[in-house]
Automatic annotation (TrEMBL), chain A:
Claim: Transport is one of the keywords in the record: yes
Organism: Candidatus Manganitrophus noduliformans
Keywords of this entry: Electron transport, Heme, Iron, Metal-binding, Transport
Domain Cytochrome c7-like span(s) in chain numbering: 114-169
Record's protein name: Cytochrome c3 family protein
Molecular functions per Gene Ontology: electron transfer activity; heme binding; metal ion binding
Span of domain Class III cytochrome C: 34-92
Stretches assigned to coiled coil: none
InterPro entries: Cyt_c7-like, Cyt_c_III_dom, Multihaem_cyt_sf
Signal peptide: none
Pfam families for the chain: Cytochrom_CIII (PF02085), Cytochrome_C7 (PF14522)
From TrEMBL, chain B:
Alphabetical list of SMART domains matching this protein: Molybdop_Fe4S4
PANTHER family per UniProt: TETRATHIONATE REDUCTASE SUBUNIT A (PTHR43742:SF9), TRIMETHYLAMINE-N-OXIDE REDUCTASE (PTHR43742)
Protein name: Molybdopterin-dependent oxidoreductase
Biased composition (Basic and acidic residues): 718-727
Matching SUPFAM superfamilies: ADC-like, Formate dehydrogenase/DMSO reductase, domains 1-3
Gene Ontology molecular function, alphabetical: 4 iron, 4 sulfur cluster binding; metal ion binding; molybdopterin cofactor binding; oxidoreductase activity
Residue ranges of the region described as Disordered: 707-727
Ion transport as UniProt keyword: no
Amino acid sequence: MRKWVGVLLALLVIGVAIIWGALYAQSTADFMGHDRQPIAFSHQRHAGELQIDCLFCHRGARISPVASVPSVYLCMTCHRSLKEQTPETEKLLAYWNDKEPIPWVRLQRLPDFVQFTHEMHLDAGFQCADCHGEVERMSQTPRAATFEMGWCIDCHERNGASLDCFTCHY
Amino acid sequence: MDLKRRDFLKVVGLGAAGSMLPGCGGETAKLIPYVLPDEEIVPGVANWYASVCRECEAGCGIIVRVMEGRARKIEGNPDHPLNRGKLCALGQASLQGLYNPDRIRGPLQRDGERGEGRFKPIPWEEAMSRWVSALQKHPGGAVLISRPVPGTLAGLFSTFMKEISGTVFFYEPSAERPLRAANRKSFGIDFLPDYDLANTTYLLSFGAPFLSHWLSPVHFGAAYGRMRQGRPEVRGRFVQVEPRLSLTAASADRWVPIRPGTEGLLAVAIGRLILEEGRTNLPRGDRSRFEKFYASFSIDRIANETGVAEEEIVRLAREFYTAASPLAIGGGIASEQTNGTDTLVAINALNLLVGNINRPGGIRFFRPSDFPASSAEVVGEQALLDLKGPSKKASRSVLMLYQANPLYTLPPSTQFRQVFEEADLVVSFSPFLDESTAMADLILPDHFFLESWGDHVTEGIAPAAGLAQPVVIPRYDTRPVGDLFLGAANRFGGGVKERLSWTDYRTMVREQWRDFFDRRQPGQPFEAAWVEALQKGGWWKPEGKPVSISQRGAPSAAEPARFEGSEKEFPFYFYPFPSMGLHYGQGANRPWLQELPDPMTTVVWGSWVEINPKTAQEYGLAERDLVRVISPYGEIEAPVVYFPGNPPDLISVPIGQGHRAYGRYAEGRGVNPLALLAPLIDAPSGALATGATRVRIERTGRKGRPVLVDQTGQGTRRHTEGGEGEA
């Protein structure tokens, strides 16, 4: 009897540790977020099937620290001329007609004390997929990497980039 | 399964621990895209706009970092000749004015009795008609009290008030009126000169607080840096003569303590020595007038009256006249006495004696730029007090306020409140609900300066005019004060409409600049010049030739200062000084400025009383004890801070706290030492003599809780103690 309880407790402890560890590894990841977008936008459809270049929509990446989400106007440049609507594109049209921005849920987020710039990494010849994964094969966009300091430092070491604290923390 | 109580608790405990795991609920961050992208905005990339800082009267050039339509950071404009890229704490904190939660968000009308401070919204149209019809009902009686706004706005205010036969007063407690009056007497010049600190080799300052709040502190701070460390061959020397060890005195090579109100006498003694020892460059014709005046003074008597030893006076005089480029300036406590103007005339005389006028390192006179309608002649407190005089100009009429707060900056002993009580209608255009605005019947709030067009003509340096542009979209339902006055002129019709026919204030500013550029650079396309001025932050030109002066006024009087309160009953001199961050109270609603430690005592977020430790101990006052400071006109209570830089017979208290209105960060915090002051005026300039009231102190037996930054382990508190000043 006592033994069973011991086993049960051990299992509980191990289970808790696993869950804890998994959550810790996720750290800042908002992993509940990706299926809660206001519109079920699919990268698979746009970047994969339609072969739209990442930078066509994420225009900031070349010229700004942030990649930026496309304006509703940019979505409409194509969607205005589509004949067939789905329930999801109807939502987009509703936002556009109401002149309301789409309240996308933010998936990639760095803490305030980190300065990251897309512009420099693109200048250095990186592809979007190097960090963000092959989103053209994902119907829902998860967070591809942990984007934690160790992960950044690894890559900086591999590529001989600066390891000075002030590179990212200023 | 037989679960024992202990095991059960273990399981429950684990469950509880599990519940403390990082949750995955909570608020998710949103990414909000533009609906329509703005062509000029790249998300994540800042735009910098040049403008003009309006947090004090100096008018430094600023550049504002704006991202996605939000102002994020303010820095000095590197091109502007006044501040050359530097900016003080007030300018840095002006963002907290823009984002202040207590800003007035739309037009308001009084709800309840006047002065109760209760207001209810009113539509703009209705507010405008109420204001204009009140003006029409009171022809000739309207009064506008405005902060100095040298530039297009001053022209607009002056023209408007002239056309409706009203009066405009440009009033600001820090305007250094005595200095202007003294310069008129000494040099016959109406505008402020440039004190060329950067090239001075010996600076003799009589109380001028040029490192904290004198005329243009950023300009002088940078010039002082160049004077001390900018020249490889010489480090300028600096001596400060001042009763108390102010921040500026603490930076000097030598501090010469002196009895308050006798600074002018010391200047007379130094002048006399310069003449006696034949070291003057004065033309012969002028010399006799100076000699005649100095003849009636003896050095030993002056040493006795000032408390400065005779050998020290001789030393100062020799240092001064043997320096390659000496400069004497005066201000602060020296000018805030009943003999302030005379004191400054005696100090100016030293510059005339050594002939440093229009020489590098001396006093240089540059005519301000010939910007149209830019004059904003600043009045002293006397002019405001005359409003309740026998002429009763303002009574039963319309009293208007633009960013002036006389109910806070004028001591209650002046009874200025009467003017408010007798007015038929009080209208305020301030963006914040300060003490005077709280007495208004009608509030038509102006934009904050970062949301408005405007310009600012700089005085004292080479000609410069700053151009201010809005850097953000207005946050609330406010309107630029320029638009309000143009709108009122339009409703008025007649002469005022003809003179002020612009549709809106932006157009008026543009047209003024067009005239200005047409006269400066005829034939140049205006549009290009205008865009360049917007980019650069204004118009300025390199130093031209200074204006020569014809008048060399000798001092005519060196009366000792008068003080209110008998020495027997009120044994202490009292000096309320503008605090570094809050100035004359304008900064009190900016938490960053509240948090700025006073440079000498490190106190934050409250008031304190500076007492010489020996004096305090005689009264049995420990540091932090609440002490009552009593003048013939009122009393305040604040905690004691030992301040060895005060002479034993002087009490000093910073100005800026003790607000009864002005928002959540300012209200009910600390005390306002101006409440103690006697209504004494320096006659020639009409400025209030803030250093002329005597006080006594009493123990209260209670402890205060001032927050000093250098006392580790003392956390900041929400409230510092200290009662209201009862007047």
